[in-house]
Amino acid sequence: VNYVVTPPTRGKNPLRIKIIAKLLALRPKSSLVGFGDGVKINRRLYDELIEFDYRMPFHSLLNKSLAGLDIKTPKQIPSLESFPPRGVSEHYGLEKEKYILLHPFASGERKSILGDELLWLAKEARADCGLKIVIIGSKKDYRETEKISSDFEQGALINLCGKLSMPEICGLIEGMKFFVGVNSAITHLAC
């Protein structure tokens, strides 16, 4: 059997993606697999319907779902080898496994951790582990992080929002002790 799998999403897949997937699944010995997004048409469209569990990392969810369809997947271990550290840790005085990488920002405010919640999260992480807090995000996230910086002793919180390239972010991911993030591309990369 050839499986056509629509992209899992916490939101809703556009109808055009579902229709294209259904057309691909019309081939002989093909089956359409989709993730539940609350739309009633899904029960008629998909041959197999899988509930999206947003608490699981994407690769774990996909492997679990495929195993439920008796599809064996090879064990895959994510690697950051193509993005070696570029000295960013040393540049900011960070020692390997002596910092928590925090990425509280996503494409929308509803998915982001902002204001008092961001302050609470950073303070709790610092209090629990005693490690430096490194916050990463885009240029537009810099100001949000600066709002909470004054609540930390000098050097305890490092705001790198908008200052890093993707290889540098990967270097920080490789050297971190812990990662805390929301549902975003950086989180998927870190997990």
The general outline is elongated
**Helical stretch count?**
8
Distance between the termini: 31 Å
Strand content: 15-25%
Order of helices and strands: EHEHEHHEHEHEHEH
Structural class: alpha/beta
- Report helical residue fraction: 25-40%
Low-pLDDT segments, ≥5 res? none
Rg: 20 Å
User: Main beta sheet, described?
Assistant: 4 strands, parallel
Mean pLDDT: 85
Number of strands: 7
Instruction: Output the strand order for the largest sheet.
Output: 6-5-4-7
What does this structure look like?
The protein has 191 residues and is of the alpha/beta class. 36% of the residues lie in helices and 16% in strands. The chain is built from 8 helices and 7 strands; from the N terminus they run E-H-E-H-E-H-H-E-H-E-H-E-H-E-H. The protein has helices spanning 15-24, 42-45, 58-68, 88-91, 115-129, 142-149, 166-175, 185-190, and strands at residues 2-5, 30-36, 48-51, 99-103, 132-135, 157-159, 178-181. The strands form 2 sheets. Strands 6-5-4-7 form a 4-stranded parallel sheet, with helices on both faces. The protein has a 3-stranded parallel sheet with strand order 1-2-3.
Describe how the helices and strands are arranged.
Blueprint: E1 2-5, H1 15-24, E2 30-36, H2 42-45, E3 48-51, H3 58-68, H4 88-91, E4 99-103, H5 115-129, E5 132-135, H6 142-149, E6 157-159, H7 166-175, E7 178-181, H8 185-190
